[in-house]
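Changelog note: in this version the structure field was regenerated for every chain. One regenerated record is shown below for reference.
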Amino acid sequence: MKFLNLAAICAATMMFAMPAGAQTADKDEVYRTTEEKYTADKKVDKMAAEPANPVVATVNGVKILSSDVEVARGQLPEQYRNLPMDQIYQPILNQLIRTKILSAQARADKLHETYTYKRRVSLVAERLLEEALLTKTVGEKVTDEALRSRYNKTSGSFPTKDEIRARHILVKTEAEADAIIKELTGGTDFAKLAAEKSIGPSKANGGDLNYFSKGQMVPPFEEAAFALAKGEFTKSAVKSPFGWHIIKLEDKRQSKPPSFDESRARLGQEMSQEIAEQLVKDLTGKATIQRFEADGSTPRMRRIQPAPAAR
């Protein structure tokens, strides 16, 4: 690096200019100084590679950084945490400013020196360490390879079931449905009529409902749809709480297990829970634990109530 080369040249020049005795005495100091410059240069390079962390506000000269906003965002309930940043940035920043103002006053009042405050900080710190340990342990074990291995072992355990793909046309009256059935019998395209006359949300897709299995549709609709042959449509209107339906069966198939990508989140949650529980179990087994009553006294023997007799 240019900075290091320049430092080395300067050091060498200084050594040749010194008396012989001084060269030996100061050699270690020169090397140390050069190493410090090199280390500082590396730190500058590292900082340059790190993401920007700009100051987003100051309160009486105390900085609030962009990273503070991200940390606060991570503490929000999930439904708010997943909102776009531009929607929650100002509320989060307002809260951080409020916290800076009030916490500064609390310190001025020496509330941070009270016993209660110190105990609460200690407990919070322990919870954060607990979270950090679980995050580290889970992160090391819930790898893509581990998830794929689990998927391969469990994907065959998913039961298959009958699925059908159907289209439908939904109208308000039986008379409208009967008129449409006549058009279909005359050869009019089902998807075309669905797009023109259906009042259901699937009209934009020509009435296509994609694949579904039993239990996903209202009973009258489901019964009529599963009774059809591939390519057939109902010759009489089917009534449901939503109106009158004409249904066409497009396809039948046996369901397949969800793909790895579809299963990744579920598998990750399952593995994370199992790993956390096992970690707690292992560490608890190694720990020496003593329990006392709420007042700190020796635990009292408690009589276990017998289970009620079976009748």
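Spot check on this record: Residues 1-49 have pLDDT under 50 and may be disordered. The first strand starts at residue 55 and ends at 59.
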